[in-house]
Amino acid sequence: MYHLISKTQQNIPGEFLYRISHPLGEYIVQTGKEYSTHQASVNFDISHHPAKISVIEELKGRSGWLILRRLVIDSFDREEYLLFSGFDDNGRLLDQETCEKLFNCQGTVSICDEMPSPVKDRLNIEAERHGKATISRSLEENNRHFSEARERLEKWADDMVLAAEKELKDTKERIKALTRQARLATTTEEQHKIQEQIRDLEKKKRRQRQSIFDIEDEIVGKRDALIEALERRMAQKTTTEELFTIRWTVA
Predict the structure, then answer these.
(1) 8 A C-beta contact, residue 5 and residue 11
(2) Which of 23, 83, 170, 182 could pair with 194 as two cysteines, CB 3.0-4.6 Å apart?
(3) For residues 241 and 2, what is the distance between their CA atoms, to the nearest angstrom?
(4) 64-115 confidence digits (pLDDT tens)
(5) What gap in Å lies between CA 227 and CA 244, rounded to an integer?
(6) How far is 80 from 95, CA to CA, in rounded Å?
(7) Is 140 helix (H, G, I), strand (E, B) or coil?
(8) Confidence (pLDDT) at 84
(9) pLDDT tens digits for 159-215?
């Protein structure tokens, strides 16, 4: 017998355990994703659940409707969300966490009566609202990451340029000091030694100037990459897929 490793339940000793990343696990997940899910009625059993789930116990004796949608956001990165939307027969909304905890309980599935049109309309409205709110949070999070990346780039650019310019300034000051010292040299040997130092510093100065140009080119490259990432976020695409709709009851 094969069992998927569980973090919430005790694993059965002596059985074959496998992870979701195992080929068998990947096959089961993919098969489950492709499985057709018709509208159904699910009776969740909280009375015999081994652990206390307060938010579900509060629903005991009540019924309602619930929908699950899969939202995919393609921009700089690919984001996937499983979004629950639901309410009870009195119109009280169920939040995402409550809907998720329902499925921690054992349940029995049965044929479901036709969903009334007003219920269907409201369920779709709540699902659309949940989806738009999730997209909005994703955009805000992306904007925050972009702002932080821009600030890091600007600070890095300032530090790099200032450090390179300071090194160049120090070299120039050293050349000036040696030039003044050369005017006061009293022997040919001393003059030669000073001129050699000036020659080496002039070479260093040219390298430092080129280093500043290289740093500026690197800054431009990083800024271009940042702009490209922003453009990809602006070209955001979203797709929504309905996974299932159920009539739920908690007993």
Answers:
(1) yes
(2) 182
(3) 31
(4) 999 999 999 987 678 999 999 999 999 999 999 999 999 999 999 999 888 9
(5) 39
(6) 18
(7) helix
(8) 97
(9) 999 999 999 999 999 999 999 988 888 888 898 998 999 999 999 999 999 999 999
Contacts of 73 (CB under 8 A, 6+ apart): 79, 80, 81, 135, 138, 236, 237, 238
Instruction: Return the H-helix or E-strand segment holding 112.
Output: none
Written as one string, the DSSP assignment of 180-235 is: HHHHT--SHHHHHHHHHHHHHHHHHHHHHHHHHHHHHHHHHHHHHHHHHHHHHHHT
Tokens, residue 172: 């120039």
Query: What span, in angstroms and rounded, lies between the C-alpha atoms of 81 and 47?
Result: 30
In the chain, the percentage of residues whose pLDDT exceeds 90 is 54
Structure tokens at 4: 């998927």
**DSSP output for 56-79:** HHTTTT-EEEEEEEEEEEESSSEE
Domains and CATH numbers, the chain: 2-143+237-250 (no CATH), 145-234 (1.10.287.1490)
Contacts of 230 (CB under 8 A, 6+ apart): 146
